[in-house]
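Final report, section 2: Outcomes. Of the targets proposed, Actin-associated protein FAM107A is the one most frequently requested by collaborating groups, and we therefore present its record in full.
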Amino acid sequence: KHFSFLPASMYTEIQRERPDGGNILTHPDYIDGNPDLIKPKKLLNPVKASKSHQELHRELLMNHKRGFSMESKPELQRVLEHRRRNQLIRQKKEEEEAKKLQSPFEKELLKRHQRLDQLEKEQEKQEDHEPEFIKVKENLRRTSTVAGDEKAA
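The predicted structure is given below as tokens.
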């Protein structure tokens, strides 16, 4: 034949000319119908043969027919996640409102309270560094003044 096509289309032309359709695979001998040969049987897949796999496959088919998506979560899990999410959002809003509602007076009180705590901690540290006899002497003075006040009354 005469090919007047481009080289890319020559391949398709050659494929059309093949009478067997371009099938390179050989046919097996048992198709010939020879009764002496034993015909092979297809091996069973142990996974597909198992009951659990069959039940799972059946359930997937039923869900697909009903229109359920397997990617979606169970209803209980969705509700619980929704509640957790709402609770976190509520907590964040409450914290933001608490920060906004703090008046300048409350802020100042908080600062003073923090300063007093720091001063108390510093005094405790200084008292720890004092010698033992000074601590005992101060305790004796306190007890003597307390006892004197009780006698006077």
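The radius of gyration is 46 Å.
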